Amino acid sequence: MYRILASAAVFLLSVSSVFAQQQAASASECGEGKQCPSNKPCCSQYGECGVGAFCLGGCDPLNSHSLDSCVPAPVCNSADYKFTSLDSIQPNTEYLGDASKANWVSSGQPEQYNDNVLLTLSETGKSSSGTLLASTSYVWYGKISAQMKSSRGQGVVTAFILMSDVKDEIDFEFVGVELESAQSNFYFQGIPDYNNGKNLTVKSSTFDDYHTYEIDWQPSQLTWSVDGTIQRTLKKTDTWNATTNQYHYPQTPARVELSLWPAGSSKNGQGTIAWAGGLVDWKSQDVQKFGYYYAMVKDVNVQCYQPTAGVNKTGSKSYIYTAKSGTNDSVQITDKDTVLKSLLGSGTNMNADYPHASASGTAAPAAATSDVATIPGLTGAGPGTNGHPGNNGNDGTTGESSSGSGSGVQSAPGASGTGVGGFSQGSSAQSKNNASSPKERAPGQQTVTITMEDYQSRSHSRLGQGVVCGEAVAMMLSPDANGTEDFSMDLGLLQETATARTGAAQLF
Fold it and tell me: Which listed residue (48, 94, 111, 173) is catalytic?
């Protein structure tokens, strides 16, 4: 999977509202020995520098300003993670490093359906670049399994992987045109080696049927299993590289990642598109019927193994790196804290806070903003909503939700999502357990396709003001839409937002 990490960075670009997407990027590039500057000290998984979320999960210590620029990572936690609701999932625009408050960090648009989390991929909107869930706790050797169904269709790839901050990686990947196989792979520090991949057999459709995929990661060997049967074994001794005098074996603490993404995007290289089975078909039966591609994850089970003998251990709360080698002997288990006070913080300034923030951490003046990037793919910091600068004089929030709930407006037709930009998350007023099936849109939940000019005209003439439903538009609008280009939005969501804000009658 690392061979396509550059294009996978598009996951995070769809997380922002259209307002943030239209701002100029302020993050510096990092990677391959190029380190971040001191004012943007943290190098994200996708090679950009910033603070806040850049310094949390996925922060690359080897290419950050210093090893301690990244926030210490929460240690492994043995658990069986069910997805009966989205309460355990927090958007990366809100997560501050407290693994006791969230099991997963999201970008894109996760949805809940029948005790599953749906990873969605749509042509426009929040999941236009796919959906990613990453565990808040790391794993440093253990047995990890996922009970899931993949997506389907050319250009569409589902993944269940382990990814470390120095890019050690262990993969299950599912190409949407190969529904009776899974691809296994591994990488050491992101070094491409295309001989590491191997296809595994799945006895029935990866899309139609649940299967359990398991990674048993031990210091000396690694196995990939499908439905309880080991299909591949890798021994560490077989990964010795005489050129670098190292074992090219995954050996550093990793996050569990579940994702659905458009490998067949026209923006990707021809090799990636060919590997994914061709360009994404946005007129496929799933998109026509449901509005998006989707994969379904029912359960993730993590069994942590005890640290290896001789490990550098001075505590029990967090992992840090102590040397630039990025190998297992450079990892230390400590009691260092893992939680930032705000999205302006970093590993060397954990208590950085928003200017003029109140003691309760709620509203702050929108004028107090910063140009330093806080969320990979977004720009701006300060007290604007979820790391965005304030807009049009409106107050924002600190980026950490105190109640876990937002406007109460559903973030997508027929399901309750975690949302970003002030939309509902966690224990929303909308019950996640009553979400309708992805195969059944609720009556009256339809989309409307208009131009922005027409939208502005209608909202002004009907309501006597401009864009009163800006958040709804931000969630649904194509990032490159302009005044005359068509865009689609959910009619029920638009009207619900308009009514809640203005008491207006039907807008359309």
Answer: 173
First to last CA, the chain: 45
Task: Identify the H or E element spanning 222.
Answer: strand 221-226
Annotation says 169 is catalytic: yes
Q: For 245-291, how does the pLDDT look when each residue is reduced to its tens digit (9 = 90+)?
A: 999 999 999 999 999 999 999 999 999 999 999 999 999 999 999 99
Strands (E), 27-178: 42-43, 49-50, 73-74, 79-82, 89-91, 104-107, 110-113, 116-121, 131-135, 142-149, 157-164, 169-175
Whether pLDDT at 437 is above 60: no
Q: What mean pLDDT, rounded, does the chain reach?
A: 76
Angle, vertex CA 301, rays to CA 13 and CA 435, nearest 5: 60
Catalytic residue among 48, 111, 169, 471: 169
Instruction: Supply the pLDDT for residue 376.
Output: 86
Cβ proximity of 377 and 15 under 8 Å: yes
Rg (the chain; Cα; Å): 22
C-alpha–C-alpha distance, residues 150 and 276, integer Å: 14
> Is 255 in contact with 57 (CB distance < 8 Å)?
yes
Q: What whole-number distance in Å separates Cα of residue 492 and Cα of residue 485?
A: 21
* Full-model pTM: 0.73
pLDDT over 80 (residue 84): yes
Please indicate whether residue 453 is annotated as part of the active site.
no
DSSP 31: B
Q: DSSP 3-state assignment of 286?
A: helix
Nearest to 261 by CA among 276, 249, 240: 276
Return d(Cα 373, Cα 377) in angstroms, integer: 8
State how far the Cα of 308 lies from the Cα of 224, in Å rounded to an integer: 21
* Residue pLDDT, tens place only, 190-241: 999 989 999 999 999 999 999 999 999 999 999 999 999 999 999 999 999 9
